[in-house]
Write a structure and sequence with these properties.
five-stranded mixed beta sheet, 45% helix
Length: 514
Amino acid sequence: MVEDCDDDAVLIVSQLRGGGLDVSYDRVETAGELTAALRAHPPDLVTCDYNMPALSAEHALKLLADSELDVPFILVSGQVGEETAAALMRCGAHDFLLKDRLTRLVPAVQRELREAADRRKRRHAEQERERLEQQLHQTERLESLGRLAGGVAHDFNNLLSVIMGYAEMLAETLSTDDPRRADIGGISLAAERAAALTRQLLTFSRQKRTQAETLNLNDVVTATESLLRRTIGEDVEFVTQLDPGLSQVTIDPTGIEQVVMNLCVNSRAAMPHGGRITITTANVGGPAGPARGPRAPEGRWACLTVADTGCGMPPEVARRALEPFFTTKGPGEGTGLGLATVYGVVTAAEGRISIDSQVGQGTTIGVLLPCSEQSASRRPAAGPAGPDRRGDGETILVVEDNEAVRDITTRILARSGYQVHEAGSPAEALERFGDTGTRIDALLTDVVMPGMSGYQLVERFRRRHPALPAMLVSGYAAGGAPGAATAPADLPHLQKPFTAGALLSKVHELLGPS
């Protein structure tokens, strides 16, 4: 109540309470008192006298507008002309009444409170609509990034397949003591590292999907450390404290790589002027968890913590940090999906996640994963083709639209005892070999090609040869290529880039025992 007469204030309040309204009020007389009251106790309604020595109604109305509160302003005065009242209404006042005619006060207040509530609901609905539109735009942008990453990885993996294939073939022509073998080994090693970067790119863009495996978190941190150091920059100290006796866990290896990278990228964003990121692993069990990590339920757990010395989060932000699309960054600067994705990966592995953060003191995010009794999954290294990996004259059709990849694939197979036919497109493959009666013992096909996918090509060939062994060879992650939803369930997959040993081993498995 902007009112300089206490008796008039009591009269107005009595009228409101008599009309069934539950009223509490502050009475102010000066601009300073009004500003302080609006800030300390934002009201539901403001009533204002017109004739006051210390504060005019026009000034009071302006102060309310400056506060940006959507609060009804009703002029209640002893004397005010209609022109003056109309001018105040044009400036934002919602109604005016004379003090000797207060019978309309209660209905006016009730009406204005209802309309204010309706305005708040409409404003909230509009804000929610804008928020959902922003989420949709973020999702679409993320999906576009994923498609771009998949396309880049596909083309890059084709190039790496050629590099690795020719390097292996060159190495086979040199004696074991030839000094040039070391140079070729350097080429192969660089290509393998490039292939690892491509896999991490797919992981980071949420495009690579694999099955859960038994692994050691220390190996994951070590494998991603090089990329992480380049990602976080030289102004951030990167420290690892890995428990050499850490137990194995069972989890999607791509997912846990994504967890480590997302946590480190988030930590980096919290340290715009540099700082320190510390990754720690440890075994925990029973009710006692790590000092700054999640408390462990009963059982044996492997714990991974990522701690930073950044700005930290207030409690209200930390409580919502795992929510999808929640972000404290400005428009266009963050998707709000990083920690939500971490939560999804961890919970899918029946793990736990916790956040310990204090403003100005940094953040520690702890991940608990149940220990596995199985041994770590090991993929056999694909070495040179031995006698059991050589062909015995079997005929293989290679369908690949990239000429360089097609050439190196056919050369590896031909040098290993297979009869090889090749085609640069599905249409050429069907025209030359689909109905000609040419013997085909196995089909190797790329997935994404002009005119027809590799999946569709396999189906066309199997109409005439239902038992034809077939294998997909793709630069996309398994299941991540366009049209992956239509892939036959029994089709094996060879991921590009591949070594000659990996190719020959997969072909040997595809053909089965002679």
